Amino acid sequence: MRYLNGTLCALMLLFAGVQYNDPDGWKWMLIYLLPAVWTGLAAWQPQHLLRRLPHYLLLASIGLGVCLLVLYFPTTSHWWAAEVWWETETAREGMGAMINLAVLITAWWSVRHWQRQSQPSELERLPATRLGAPIK
After folding, report:
1. What is the number of domains present in the chain?
2. Would you say the pTM of this structure is higher than 0.85?
3. What is the mean pLDDT of residues 99-107?
4. Could you tell me if residue 132 is inside a domain?
5. C-alpha to C-alpha distances, 30 to 26, 47, 68, 81, 134, nearest whole angstrom
6. Considering only 49-53, 66-70, 126-130, which range has the smallest mean pLDDT?
7. Of 36, 52, 45, nearest to 111 (Cα)?
8. Domain ranges, residue 13
9. Is residue 127 part of a domain?
């Protein structure tokens, strides 16, 4: 998961970087930097995202991502076709909002996956007498 989140973090930083010449570039830089921060934390410090405040902030970011997707969802017909999104700004913005939400959900999911992997199994939590060790 570290490699996936690290790659997504780098990709989001790249997406934010190429917004410098966009008329509303500052807005899209912030939109892309938010999942970059979360995937960076999920890659290198996932235990910090298990705390209450960061966890709720990540969930709030996902909620914001859903709002952005609703706001920027492309209304152009065949927005997924290359000839449409190459020419239409709103189609590109809608796809950017989709990518943003997908990366935020990936960060949340990978932290939950990391949490399940790092917790001791049921057998490790049982007392030694239940594991078949002789009772003294």
Report:
1. 1
2. no
3. 96
4. no
5. 6, 24, 12, 27, 60
6. 126-130
7. 45
8. 2-117
9. no
